[in-house]
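Hello forum,

I keep getting stuck at the same step: I have a sequence, I want structure tokens, and every attempt I make locally crashes halfway through. Rather than fight my setup again tonight, could one of you with a working pipeline run this one for me? It's a single chain of 227 residues.
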Amino acid sequence: MIDLFEKAVPVLIEGFWVTLRIGLFSILFASLLGLGAALMRTARHPLVSGTALAYSTVFRGTPLLIQLFLLYYGIGTLAFVHDQPILWWLFSDGARCAILAIALNSGAYMSEAIRGGLQSVPAGQLDAAASCGMSGLQIFRRIRFPLAIRQAFPAYSNELVLAIKGTSLASTIAVMELTGFARRLMSQSYLIVETFVIAGILYLAINVTLLGCAWLVERGLGIRSGE
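Reply #2:
Ran it on my machine without issues. Output:
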């Protein structure tokens, strides 16, 4: 058992950093996509709101694994993609495809959480702000967005954890992240339980840290204290 820890931990730590990098980039891009799609969903133009609805429906209604395969093994093999340097740079690398797939998937869920928060802001507060002479941008920045975030943040923070757990699927497209290294060690040592227990602890460490940060943000927003 001690020999396993001495051999496994350094290898899994290497995968841990890959997982962390994929997860954090995915969360960053998913947050931007989620906010953009939520704003589009609340737009009055039917084409704009319909496009955001279609995006949300497709990526929430299909498994992340299928999305990952379509991006890497589907789009990544098209001749058009090979001829475009930027697209080839994106789709030729498994880690970048994993970031894109997780960001698109998580962004769809985040957009619904943020949209719900935006729509929960009382119209009376917006009308009062407008009557005070605030512009539309000022109303959004000072009133609508802060109130929406208070409502959406619990669901948003839950999606952060799901995004990190989604990184484990990156190993299916030959990305050597935490789960990928765990599978390699398992095939070499045949100690399935012990290897994946260590991997699970490392995943737990990431998510506990994320949840702790989310808890601090929620306290700052007055969500948990009911302020």
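Residues 137 and 144 are 10 Å apart (CA to CA). If your local run keeps crashing, start a new thread with the error log.
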